[in-house]
Design goal:
The chain is of the alpha+beta class and 401 residues long. It has 9 helices and 14 strands. The chain folds into 2 domains: 156 residues, HUPs (Rossmann fold), CATH 3.40.50.620; 184 residues, Valyl/Leucyl/Isoleucyl-tRNA synthetase, editing domain (Isoleucyl-tRNA Synthetase, domain 2, Alpha-Beta Complex), CATH 3.90.740.10.
């Protein structure tokens, strides 16, 4: 007969079940914690001990929690419980962010309207109702994860007392001179018509076209004329992958310590970084060329060039953000687009700023004939006009028709 090995094991006797059955048991445990006010008794017991406060960034009240939210809350709950069991008074006040675009978008989708279709006061009411609905849902979901905290009195950013406190603090900051009004470039979503958080921007490979554009030299401080160059045929050559930003161009930025030279080809003179000449000539399919002269970028500072299709100048400036990884070493600079462009142009207050795209992603009157076009359509239209006018040195082989 087969041996029954179970009979040979000397195991302890216990009333604990062999299976955890947590999906069935946990709701009862949580209900008992709530009924017995376990969290509040723990905090009361630890009153007077050294305090340890975990400042928790609030989740948005715009939907059910997801795996990332759950992990975030559980890890913080472990810390709070550990501190309360190791000699600290560690209260945990849960809270929710009930303002902002994530809630607005979900609320508008729920009631089936687009932005601007209903009065702001009515929209705010829908947003409040939507947010409070998910505050209660998320509260239950956090409790179901076993999280302890003062769920009876959470902080909500829509509470009048919370908003009033924010205003008082802002007022104090203003009185102390900490608040100032200025400008800066921001990431912008034309679909949502709102600024995007820099920390949340993710980049992916996107098809784009690089172009090399000639900016006619206007005032070269006598340096190129002394070389016998025909200034009507002398150009700074810039490289860009964002053709639609050219209407906002106000400057050309050089690396102050990089070596620049004049490339003679096709009866014209092209100014660019010496190290990048072979790459640019290859892109332009130019095989026969010569170079003449050597200048540091800082020696060309404050020269001016003509914008390729607007009646205005582009100032030649210098900046440490210029690299020789690609392009021409002459960086198309539009302070209305891009943080580096904006920051370097602050050193040259005479430059100013032009933003030729509106919040809907359409070109404005500052874009001239391209007004009303989307940035994608402006890319093609501007590039085609540059080719037709002879201002395009190289297109990378793509067609803009």
């Amino acid at each position: 007969m087969p041996q029954d090995y179970n009979a040979t094991l000397n195991l302890p006797k216990t009333d604990f079940s062999m299976r955890g059955n947590l999906p069935q048991k946990e709701p009862g445990m949580i209900e008992e914690w709530d009924k017995n006010r376990t969290y509040y008794k723990m905090i009361e017991k630890n009153a007077g001990k050294p305090r340890y406060v975990l400042h928790d960034g609030p989740p948005y009240a715009n939907g059910d929690i997801h795996l990332g939210t759950a992990l975030n809350k559980v890890l913080k709950d472990i810390i709070v419980k550990y501190k309360n069991m190791s000699g600290f008074e560690s209260p945990y006040i849960p809270g929710w962010d009930t303002h902002g675009l994530p809630i607005e978008l979900k609320a508008m989708k729920q009631i089936g309207v687009e932005n601007g279709a209903i009065p702001p006061i009515k929209l705010r009411k829908h947003c409040r109702d939507y947010a409070m609905k998910y505050v209660e849902l998320q509260k239950k979901e956090f409790k179901r994860l076993g999280v302890w905290g003062d769920f009876d009195d959470p902080y909500l950013t829509l509470k009048p007392e919370f908003e009033a406190k924010q205003i008082r603090i802002f007022g104090d900051m203003a009185k102390k001179g900490y608040i100032y009004k200025g400008m800066k470039p921001v990431y912008w979503c034309p679909d949502c018509q709102t600024a995007l958080a820099e920390a949340e921007i993710e980049y992916s490979d996107d098809k784009c076209y690089s172009i090399y554009v000639k900016f006619p030299v206007k005032d070269e401080k006598g340096k190129f004329a002394a070389m016998g160059l025909d200034l009507s045929k002398t150009f700074f050559v810039i490289w860009t992958t964002t053709t639609w930003t050219l209407p906002g161009n106000l400057a050309i930025c050089l690396g102050p310590e990089y070596e620049y030279t004049v490339v003679k080809a096709n009866g014209e003179n092209y100014i660019m970084a010496k190290e990048l000449v072979p790459e640019v000539m290859k892109a332009a399919s130019i095989e026969e060329y010569t170079t003449e002269g050597s200048f540091l970028g800082k020696e060309l500072e404050y020269m001016t060039a003509k914008h390729p299709f607007f009646d205005r100048d582009s100032l030649v400036i210098v900046g440490d953000h210029v690299t020789l990884d690609s392009g021409t070493g002459c960086v198309h600079t539009a302070p209305g687009f891009g943080v580096e462009d904006f920051e370097v142009c602050k050193k040259y207050p005479e430059i100013g700023i032009v933003v030729s795209v509106d919040g809907n992603g359409k070109m404005t009157a500052d874009a001239g004939k391209y007004e009303g076009l989307s940035t994608d359509d402006a890319n093609k239209a501007i590039a085609a006009d540059l080719v037709a006018s002879g201002a395009m040195l190289a297109t990378g082989g793509q067609s803009f028709q």
